[in-house]
Amino acid sequence: MRIPVLAAALAVAATTALAEAPLEARLNAVIDTAIAEKRIVGTVVLVAKDGEIIYRRAAGLADREAGAPMQEDAIFRLASVSKPFVTAAAMRLAEEGRLDLNAPVTRWLPDFRPALPDGTRPDITIHQLLTHTSGLGYSFLEPADGPYHRLNVSDGMDQPGLSLDENLARLSAAPLYFTPGEGWRYSLGIDVLGGVLEQAEGRSLPDIVRDKVTAPLGITDTGFTVRDPSRLVAAYADATPEPRRMTDGIAVPLMGLDTVFAPSRILDPTSYPSGGAGMVGTADDLLRFLEAIRTGGAPILKPETVATMTRDQVGPQAQTQGPGWGFGYGWAVLTDPAPTGTPQATGTLQWGGAYGHSWFIDPQNGLTVVALTNTAFAGMAGAFPTAIRNAVYE
Known about the structure:
Distance between the termini: 31 Å
Shape: globular
Strand content: 15-25%
Strand order of the largest sheet: 3-2-1-14-13-12-11-10
Number of helices: 11
Mean pLDDT: 94
Order of helices and strands: HHEEEEHHHHHHEEEEEHHEEEEEEH
């Protein structure tokens, strides 16, 4: 019995030593372990406390086959990390009186009228698009024989060259999952919102996001096109014994369902700008945007707008990250830490991206944490983002 007891004692001692180690040592250990165990290929991690960057590291490989090391200014396919940027642009237009959050989508997209299974076609509001209470869904959240798959609806990460009009037509032909406002389901609502913004402004979504969000923040590498292709990281998918390099059409399983990726999509100028998944960017750009949100929104949004965005708009029906989490405009909102096991404080904002990303803002503790990887889904869900979070709080 002495050997197990000794092993347990050593494990406790190692855990205690890690918790007592400086932040840099704790985070380095998490990152080095994930890379050594071949769960992720490369990452850029930033931690800011009260606006000061207290940890910064690029680790692993940006392109394993080329032997290219990860750089701090690496450009990543952002997937759903796109959503907060597009949401912020929508809220800016709402501030300017150019977008009514309670108006029906058909004010700008008259042909977008998906039906319930009984054939009725209820109105969907902008608010419902923003909060994923519209009754829409995602292909990757339904079985292979589901209606989105049968209609070949794109999730905004596949089908290079597909137009927004065509994808909205396919989406409109699919039945709604529930009456708008009476449920919560993660969805293509932000892609539909992108079409609304284009009609409201009479110009492209990339131009709107640039003028309303990224340019005022001095952000240059984040948008719907790759500013410097030489810095675009390769994309990888979970596999054994190591992540496999993505190719167009690859289906990556998560919880028994497949997500289809096409890494070349971002390099095809004919691909529609997916408001929910179509942007690229850097860790520094994302941190700058999140810090603007944490500190009240300047120079892109008013404090009262940010207060609305960071308030739970949905209630317990969402449980977007499990019990205790609701949803605001653009992200999950922690309403009750008790059932979650998280060290984060009430009011924490959090989300991620399918290409392998996670981020959170803890306003009470003055923390903003960004962890971008090039590995789906290990960088988004599971041991790595949880270990990054815990190392920050230890």
